[in-house]
Amino acid sequence: MGQSPANMLNHSPMSQLQIVAVIICIALNALDGFDVLAISFASPGIAAEWGINRAELGVVLAMEMFGMALGSVILGNAADRFGRKPTIQFCLILMTSGMFLAAMVDTVNHLLMVRFLTGLGIGGMLASTNAMVAEFANQKFRHLCVIIMATGYPLGAIAGGSVVSVLLETHTWRSIFVFGGSVTAMFLVIVAWLLPESVEYLSNKQPANALQRINATLTRMGHQGIVQLPEKVLTVKKSSFKILLSKDLRVLTLLLMLAYFAQIMTFYFILKWIPKFVVDMGFAPAQAGQVLVWANVGGAIGAILLGLLTHKIKLHKLLIGVLLIAFVMVSVFGRGYESLSSLAMVSAATGFFTNAGVVGLYALMAQSFPSDVRASGTGVVIGFGRGGAAISPIVAGYLFTAGVSLQGVSIAMGTGALVAALSIFCIGIFQHRTSNKKSLSTNKKSVI
């Protein structure tokens, strides 16, 4: 029987190639962060140029989320079937095309279509990179690497938002998408040149030339090659979705879907509406972008701190505490602020906890799903959750149009964090009971 490359990586120090792979995935997630929020940065200019109201703008802000939901499920499954790397490359093609096309549209309907296309790529990208990082990181640093990978999302918004603030001083909102498309296109070359396929995927699926590809990657990592592939477990072919809803994984999958759906509603309420709030307060669109950058600065710090704390505190307990505080901060955000500095400070604090809750869920997905359905499981959870992201700006838009105050809307949208906290509490109970059942079963077999 051949050695297991996954076990080899699990119990060895992180090599330079593994670190590079994680860094590339962080950068890819940063692209996601900018590409998603590009429409938020552009929204004041779009509303002014085309004369659309808040309810219509809510639909525009949400459209890529529908694409992300579908892309997460379909392309997440593709990453388990055809490989992490080719799926990432396909997602980059979709994202690049969508960003450049968004710069050329002249009607709301055309913009909705190209944002949906962009969303397909973004959704598939996150499912693929989450699995890729979990499989390249060793056991000691897996939680931290997955969380830092997810930190790329706010980092992309910070870096991109800083550039956008400068662009909007002299250019129209269309320049945002030209910039985003150009940077995304660069990563087609970077991924092709530097990012290897996951050796765990190659070992499990064993496509053509799997042994040679695994050994080439292991050699680059400083490990000895393996003589033969591990024995492939023959199983009845079932779709990934059926496996995820099987007796062993059904409760876990559904609870993760609910937690992510609820928290992402809260998260995107803040990110999608901040630029519009700032402009409505009488400030320029460039200043609105700066406030959104501060929200993402807080989000990045929150994610990194969460990752460091996972070495000291169990992930479940840590996440529940973070989500409860997230609800409080979203409610505080809803009080409204007259000065730009006060709004920026509260936005940063709110982003700290809301984004920490989201990235903690990514780590929980990577930890909970077995490797053969890791990308599919992540994709299904994210895909369902993106429904929450899509609904969030629409619901908030209609609540505002109906005359509900910012405070009322904030409390309503913040309850998603409470639902997520309760779901994670239930996941902890479920996993504890499952672990006890397995222990009892093992003990009985030992006695027999």
CA radius of gyration: 22 Å
Q: What overall geometry do the principal axes of the alpha carbons give? A: globular
What portion of the residues fall into strands of 2 or more residues? Answer: under 5%
Number of helices: 16
**E-strand count:** 0
Mean pLDDT: 84
Low-confidence stretches: none
Task: Give the helix level as a range of percent.
Answer: over 70%
CATH class: Mainly Alpha
- Specify the biggest β-sheet: none
CATH superfamily: MFS general substrate transporter like domains
**CATH architectural label:** Up-down Bundle
Question: How far apart are the first and last residues' alpha carbons, in Å?
Answer: 28 Å
Order of helices and strands: HHHHHHHHHHHHHHHH
Would you tell me the structural class of the helices and strands? mainly alpha
CATH-defined fold name:
Growth Hormone, Chain: A
The tally of structural domains comes to: 1
Q: If you had to describe this structure to a student in words, what would you say it looks like?
A:
The structure is a single chain. The chain has helices at 5-10, 16-50, 54-82, 84-102, 108-136, 142-170, 174-194, 199-205, 210-220, 240-244, 250-280, 285-309, 315-333, 340-368, 374-401, 406-447. The mean pLDDT is 84. The protein has a single domain, classed as Up-down Bundle (Growth Hormone, Chain: A), CATH 1.20.1250.20. The chain is an all-alpha fold and 448 residues long. 52% of the residues are buried.
